[in-house]
Amino acid sequence: xxxxxxxxxxLARKIRIDTLxxxxxxxxxxxxxxxxxxxxxxxxxxxxxxxxxxFPKWPERDRFILSKGHAAPAVFVTLAHxxxxxxxxxDTFRKTNGKLQGTVSITTPGGDMTVGSLGQYLSVGxxxxxxxxxDGKDYKTYVLLGDGEIxxxxxxxxxxxxxxxxxxxxxxILDNNKVQMCGDTRDILxxxxxxxxxxxxxxxxxxxxxxxxxxxxxxxxxxxxxxxxAPTCIIADTIKGKGVxxxxxxxxxxxGAPSDEQLAQALKxxxxxx
Length: 274
What we know:
By secondary structure, this protein is an alpha/beta fold. It has ten helices and seven strands.
């Protein structure tokens, strides 16, 4: 476990750099939503989650579902840094017959669910959390949602179900970067105040700066340990394309790879020594 804020911050910087390099090499991927989730992933994988890279399917491990599946590049890079597979595997991202495809798979070392169409995976997380409690396991299930994704009705069916069954071992984290593929979420289909919506379903709701390492640590540490408590939803306010000036807040960078020149500029801004 890495506890030091500065070490975690530097890990996040390296993950951001390697995420951009991975997308650039593949000439394909989703940088905007990957970069907005980096600090969340860093704290989960290096500080909070009970996992073992040498035993990826350890039955007692915490579970993580990337419901906003397009952020797979950031998850793959995080898993490589955490030691689940060699960095060379990142070179196979989005390649024919490559080990790492466009979304996380249950066959990916460290992957707990194969992800496809958005909106389905809070339901899966609800099932995992319920199964864990029924089996007498004390693992937690973390589900990372996108704010555009929660326009999907199935998300709210799962929210109602999880609250009804008092799944205190379920934690939803909303990457609230306020931008989706075609524009700002408020213009495409406003979701209003997502925290108020989850609270109205009976969830324990917390709001944080999703790029502040200490706030992420504190909110995760403060989650009730009672598996029969209300499920927790963390509203993490983030910036799409965080860390790269020409990507920040731009829907144009929901998908697409940076050119050689754009990558060089991004790496300079992120402090990579050339």
